[in-house]
Design a protein that fits this description.
The chain has 278 residues and is mostly helical. It has 14 helices and no strands.
């Protein structure tokens, strides 16, 4: 009886895992099928899962009818700059909050976390007016600075947890050997939290890559638009190019999937390390 129960539990577990994965993968799979279907089959009723023929004309249209390569470059520059600066600033602040003793540390942590709770739409107007006065609209800095503002609280909060779990013996031994605080931070502490840096960096990169509202508001020049805004503006007054939009969404999603697959071990190591107290 116990063996039967354990077998049924295992069967149910894998069933729900497969169901969960299927629900997640289904929209992307449908987008991919739409991107390779003939135009006549995209809006067919009933819907056809398997296309009668496979072609890549929609992928060609994405780059010929629109400056999509420029959109990709803009998103890559903005997301990369946001990630690098957020990690550098966030790691320094997190190390100070985790290791240094000063009054108001908990209040500061709560204040940092509360910044990320502000709804995006509530901050849109004041940030727009500020960027307009600084003449940063339609410039990469006009997106990177707001993105860092909302990426830093997440980076600081998560990295503070990782730094606080590292044994103090590393710092004490380095101090005895004559290492300065800066050298301890860059040469000892940062290498120890590499998995956490990869995890936080990927989260920040994906959020910056997919952000829409700020990019739509601050980048009105077509050649400065990012990928989400560019795809959203594919439709015209007389045309709704589902095939082009599906192909563009596949092109945008594939790099993120590749990043996750390449760094999956470090990401999992970073997430699991942060949840264990020694």
């Amino acid at each position: 009886m116990q063996k039967k129960k354990s077998i049924w539990k295992e069967v149910l577990f894998y069933f729900f895992v497969c169901l969960f994965v299927g629900i997640i993968v289904l929209p992307f799979f449908w987008q991919f099928l739409t991107s390779v279907k003939p135009l006549s089959e995209i809006s067919a009723i009933p819907a056809k899962w398997i296309p009668s023929s496979v072609h890549g004309q929609f992928y060609v249209n994405v780059f010929e009818k629109h400056p999509f390569a420029k959109y990709l470059l803009n998103s890559l520059i903005v997301a990369t700059a946001t990630t690098v600066l957020s990690i550098l600033i966030g790691a320094s602040a997190a190390y100070a909050l985790a290791r240094l003793r000063f009054k108001g540390k908990k209040i500061m942590l709560m204040a940092i976390l509360s910044i990320s709770m502000f709804p995006t739409i509530a901050t849109l107007s004041p940030i727009y007016l500020l960027l307009k006065q600084l003449k940063l609209l339609n410039k990469y800095a006009g997106l990177v600075i707001p993105y860092i503002t909302f990426a830093l609280p997440l980076a600081i909060w998560l990295l503070t947890n990782f730094f606080s779990q590292l044994p103090k013996g590393f710092e004490e031994a380095a101090s005895i050997d004559g290492c300065s605080r800066a050298r301890i931070f860059f040469q000892i502490m940062l290498p120890l939290i590499k998995p956490a840096i990869f995890s936080v960096g990927l989260i920040v990169f994906i959020n910056a890559w997919n952000e829409y509202i700020y990019a739509l508001t601050f980048m009105t020049d077509d050649m400065m638009r990012t990928v989400p805004v560019g795809i959203a503006l594919f439709p015209s007054n007389y045309e709704l190019p589902w095939g082009d939009m599906a192909a563009a969404s596949v092109v945008v999603t594939v790099p993120l999937i590749i990043l996750v697959l390449i760094f999956q071990r470090k990401i999992i190591a970073g997430l699991t390390t942060g949840g264990v107290k020694e």
